[in-house]
Design brief:
Distance between the termini of chain A: 37 Å
Order of helices and strands of chain B: EEEEEEEEEEE
Shape of chain A: globular
Number of helices of chain B: 0
Number of helices of chain A: 0
Number of strands of chain A: 11
Oligomer: heterodimer
Radius of gyration of chain B: 13 Å
Largest interface: A-B, 27 and 23 residues
Helix content of chain A: under 10%
Mean pLDDT of chain B: 94
Low-confidence stretches of chain B: none
Strand content of chain A: over 45%
Order of helices and strands of chain A: EEEEEEEEEEE
Largest sheet of chain A: 7 strands, mixed
């Protein structure tokens, strides 16, 4: 079956703009989470959605937001982009929220965002 | 929150050599996964292993939950094994997201 699909794969934005990234989870998976990866900070958790509800949120400013649709697809939005938002944004899906025993988490290929 | 430390940070091997990567974590966990990040950025699942031992071809992993560490073994390494290996955990406490280590950068030379 298809894996986690993220679009777009690469994008360049200007400071002050906003960006929306999309993630389609593995079929049947209802939990979607987002991570940011930068050379300086490594992989950091952004937020997690399950059944269209945000279940958990990392330590990021309010410019970072997300949502999940009834088909489990998720989007994340970053408003008023800053240079420091340049990163690889990774989406992950799982059957259930992350803390459940036996719950393997699968990642997509990521969206490379460059802010100039 | 839980701390995850990986060692070594960098590892250079000749093709055919064996290696052991280590992951130490500071609290009890109910989820531990090893990932290989390919050059295009994708995190590829290697093992889901909160405890015990698993093997998949040339790769195997062992987690000793009571002592809070996990080991990833790569035997007969190939150039395609190059990349960054991450250990990630979810603590048994209140946190529900994966916390990643800083990774081991593996380079396998032909």
């Amino acid at each position: 079956k298809a894996g986690v699909t993220q679009t777009p794969r690469y994008l360049i934005k200007t400071r002050g703009q906003q960006v929306t990234l999309s993630c389609s989870p593995i079929s049947g998976h209802r939990s979607v989470s987002w991570y940011q990866q930068t050379p300086g900070q490594g992989l950091q958790f952004l937020f997690e959605y399950f059944s269209e509800t945000q279940r958990n949120k990392g330590n990021f400013p309010g410019r970072f937001s997300g949502r999940q649709f009834s088909n489990s697809r998720s989007e994340m939005n970053v408003s008023t982009l800053e240079l420091g938002d340049s990163a690889l944004y990774l989406c992950a899906s799982s059957l259930a929220p992350g803390a459940r025993t036996g719950n393997t988490i699968y990642f997509g290929e990521g969206s490379w965002l460059t802010v100039v | 929150g839980i701390q995850v430390e990986q060692s070594p940070p960098d590892l250079i091997l000749q093709e055919g050599a064996n290696s052991t990567l280590r992951c130490n974590f500071s609290d009890s966990v109910n989820n531990l996964q090893w990932f290989h990040q390919n050059p295009w950025g994708q995190l590829i699942n290697l093992f889901y292993i909160p405890s015990g031992t698993k093997q998949n071809g040339r790769l195997s992993a062992t987690t000793v939950a009571t002592e809070r560490y996990s080991l990833l073994y790569i035997s007969s390494s190939q150039t395609t094994d190059s990349g960054v290996y991450f250990c990630a955990v979810i603590s048994s406490g209140s946190a529900r997201q994966l916390t990643f280590g800083s990774g081991t950068q593996l380079t396998v030379l032909p």
